[in-house]
Amino acid sequence: MKKIKVNGSEHTFTEEQEESTLLSFLREELRLTGTKNGCGEGTCGACTVLVNNKAVRSCRYKLGRAADAEVLTIEGLIREDGSLHPVQQAFMDAGAVQCGFCTPGMIMQTLDLLHKNPEPTREEIRKALKGNLCRCTGYQTIVDAVQLAAARMMPSAQCTTYGQ
Ligand code: FES
Ligand code: FES
Question: What's the pTM?
Answer without folding.
Answer: 0.93
